[in-house]
Design a protein that fits this description.
Elements: E1 7-13, H1 38-51, E2 57-60, H2 62-67, H3 69-77, E3 81-84, H4 97-115, E4 121-122, H5 136-142, E5 147-148, E6 169-170, E7 176-177, E8 182-185, E9 188-191, H6 196-200, H7 203-217, E10 222-225, H8 242-249, H9 252-265, E11 268-269, H10 271-275
Parallel strand pairs: 1-2, 1-10, 1-11, 2-3, 4-5, 5-7
Antiparallel strand pairs: 6-7, 8-9
């Protein structure tokens, strides 16, 4: 009997006020003045994963790790993979090469000092790797990363490389890129990897899409989520556009129950485990 494909559960560990859509509302210099919610929400996810014997990769902001070191240690001690989300949640497209090197290098060192083992994975904030900044892979390579999961091969107004390969591929360095999962539908790539789409689509469609993807492609499926997405009681940010309000707050009250169903319906592990990386 063929063993079921193991899928990758990934969490982008950041607080609600750090998302790119709110960058004009919250100055990073003032983040410490805001009551944090990321620790509580991430611990809630860890409890869910423990209850369902699921492992995950936590792409963690250095800013979060500095303030909640015990949270990062819990992630590692419970057998999950700790990976990097950079230090300050700044898009790669908004950084110079030197700024990017400092951002990913500082985050990697901080996380490694906390967990006592190498950090080999990276995900760019807002999937901000494009055809115009491929030098990012040179930086990741020199900083000791082995893989990135920073490309979403879809059409989107804020990110995406629509014609990028849909599955793990080699870059011009030793760093692999592992794109977010898409379903090929009438010649178009349909985003099915989670995040806002997980809140937008009915759960029945998400389950159908995952099963169809795995069955057709015989590839691991990658899911991603932010801790703030299970937090329906988070403060409402004022002065944002209707589109941003819709995208950020849609169906937050349904996410925790949907994640519970996801953990029951599919087999989950970390990126390193699913793709066979050794730290």
């Amino acid at each position: 009997m063929t063993k079921p494909i193991k899928n990758a559960m990934t969490i982008d560990v950041e607080d609600y006020f750090q998302v790119s859509a709110f960058e004009d509302k919250f100055n990073p210099n003032n983040w410490d003045d805001i009551a944090p919610r990321v620790e509580t929400n991430t611990n809630k996810l860890l409890d869910l994963f423990a209850a369902h014997d699921a492992k995950a990769t936590f792409f963690t902001l250095g800013w979060v790790a500095q303030r909640f070191p015990e949270l990062i240690k819990r992630i590692a001690n419970e057998g999950h993979e700790v990976a990097s989300h950079g230090t300050m949640h700044k898009r790669a497209t908004d950084q110079t090469e030197d700024e990017f090197r400092a951002d990913v290098g500082d985050a990697k060192k901080l996380l490694e000092d906390l967990i006592g083992k190498p950090v080999i994975g990276y995900r760019a904030p807002s999937f901000s790797f494009t055809e115009r900044n491929e030098w990012v892979y040179d930086v990741l390579h020199t900083e000791g990363y082995k893989y990135s999961s920073s490309v979403y091969p879809v059409v989107h107004d804020h990110y995406g490389i629509p014609d990028a390969p849909r599955f793990k591929y080699a870059t011009h360095t030793a760093v692999d890129e592992i794109p977010l999962s898409t379903l090929k539908w009438f010649g178009k790539n349909i985003p099915i990897s989670g995040g806002g789409y997980f809140r937008l689509y009915p759960y029945m469609f998400t389950r159908f899409a995952i099963r169809a993807f795995v069955s057709k492609e015989q590839q691991p499926y990658i899911f991603y989520l932010h801790p703030w997405e299970i937090d329906s009681l988070q403060p409402r940010v004022q002065g944002i556009s209707a589109k941003t309000r819709f995208r950020h707050y849609l169906n937050l009250n349904r996410v925790e129950s949907r994640v519970t169903r996801l953990l029951t319906d599919f087999n989950w592990s970390s990126m390193s485990d699913v793709y066979g990386y050794e730290s």
